[in-house]
Amino acid sequence: MTTEITPAGFSINRNLLEKLKKEGTIKTFPPDTVIIDENDYIKYIPIVLNGSIKVFKLDEEGREILLYYIKPGESCVMSFLGATCNGTSKIKAVVEEEAEILILPVHKATDLIRENPQWTQFIFELYNRRFEELLSVVNAIAFQKVDERLWDLLKTKVKMLKTTELNVTHQQIADELGTAREVVSRLLKQLERDKRISISRNKIKVLAM
Fold it and tell me: What share of the chain is helix, strand, coil (3-state, %, to 5)?
C-alpha cells in the first residue's frame, strides 16, 4: 500500500491524503505565523505537508511552554479534540519553519470519522503519540534540570530542521522552555565554553551531539 508522507511511527495512506486534499485547501505560511491561538474557536484542522509547527501552552502570566512539534504527515490532535467538543483552543500553534499546510474544515474532519476508517486510525495514532510527548514534557519539567532540557531542545531542533546552524534567539529558546532569557544565556555560554556549541548573533551552531 503506497504512502505519500511517512514520518517515523505512522504514515498517511496515499488514498487518504488525496481525499483530504479534495476536502481541504493547501496554503503556505512563513515562519512565526500563528496558525491557532489560545482561546480561538477552532474552524479547521491543520495537517502539515512540509515544514513544521510548534505548539505551546501559555500559563497565567503569559509565559509559553513548548509542548510538541507538528512535523510533515502530522496534525494537531489538540485542535481536533477541541473542535469536536465545540470548545476553544487550549494551545497556541506557530509556524517554526516555512510550512505547507493542508487546511481541513472541522465539519469535514468530523464527517471523515464516520466515513473513513483510515482517518480514524490516523487520529488515534496521532493522539497516542501526542500523549507520550506530553508525558515527556511533564517528566522533563518535574525531573530534569533546565540545562538538560536546553540541550535536549537544541538536539531536537537540529534533528527536525536537518541543520546544525539554528537561527534562534535566546528569548525564543527561553519562551520554549518556559524560563528566563538570562537563564538561557548563562547556560548557552556554558555550552559554548564546553565546546558543544558556538554562538553568534541570533544563531547557534551545535558542534557536538
Answer: 45, 30, 25
